[in-house]
């Protein structure tokens, strides 16, 4: 059984894909969202590497999350209450797994490096690569996991670069 979620996946997709737009004046041009089939060879290669890691991370997040929910259940809570209590402790649910957060950050920064090596016209926003393309391809379980995050785990350094 897949992990329970407490959010609307469609809304989460829209929020995460749109979130970096708030920073567009502070960043180098991020490019335009486009289908994977229209992306550069460098983007497609980075995306293939990204996808290769997702099954293991999905399994690790599900196992870790189930342990947190089970711990709440061991306190005498029913399944629904245990899930709710676990989300109260970890607002991003299974996407709170530290290895998952690290992976998303590392992948984002890799797509940013790809972008910076390409002409502006060929760039694709990292959010599109990390979430838009899996959503486009119907990778529902991965999209459910990513959209558990209320925000992207990145920031900007003093020079306006992703960090």
The average pLDDT value, as a whole number, equals 95
Secondary structure tally, helices:
6
Instruction: Please provide the count of β strands.
Output: 0
Compute the gyration radius: what is it?
A: 17 Å
Oligomer: single chain
Report on the architecture of this protein:
The protein is mainly α and 163 residues long. It has one domain. Helices cover 56% and strands 0% of the residues. The chain contains six helices and no strands. The chain has helices spanning 9-18, 41-73, 79-89, 98-116, 126-136, 140-146. α2 crosses α3 (79-89) and α4 (98-116) crosses α5. The chain starts with 8 loop residues before the first helix and ends in a 17-residue tail after the last helix.
What labels describe this entry?
single chain, 163 residues, mainly alpha, 6 helices
State the gist of this model.
The termini are far apart.
Give the arrangement of secondary structure elements.
Blueprint: H1 9-18, H2 41-73, H3 79-89, H4 98-116, H5 126-136, H6 140-146
């Amino acid at each position: 059984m897949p992990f329970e979620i407490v959010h609307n996946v469609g809304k989460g997709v829209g929020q995460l894909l749109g979130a970096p737009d708030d920073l567009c004046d502070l960043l180098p041009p991020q490019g335009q969202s486009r289908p994977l089939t229209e992306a550069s060879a460098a983007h497609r290669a980075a995306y293939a590497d990204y996808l290769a890691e997702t099954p293991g991370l999905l399994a690790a997040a599900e196992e870790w999350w189930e342990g947190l929910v089970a711990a709440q259940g061991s306190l005498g809570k029913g399944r629904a209450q245990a899930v709710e209590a676990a989300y109260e402790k970890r607002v991003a649910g299974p996407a709170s797994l530290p290895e998952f957060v690290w992976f998303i950050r590392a992948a984002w920064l890799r797509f940013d490096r790809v972008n910076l090596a390409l002409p502006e016209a060929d760039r694709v926003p990292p959010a599109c690569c990390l979430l838009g393309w899996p959503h486009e391809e119907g990778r529902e379980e991965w999209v459910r996991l990513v959209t558990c995050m209320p925000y992207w785990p990145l920031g900007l350094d003093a020079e306006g670069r992703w960090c």
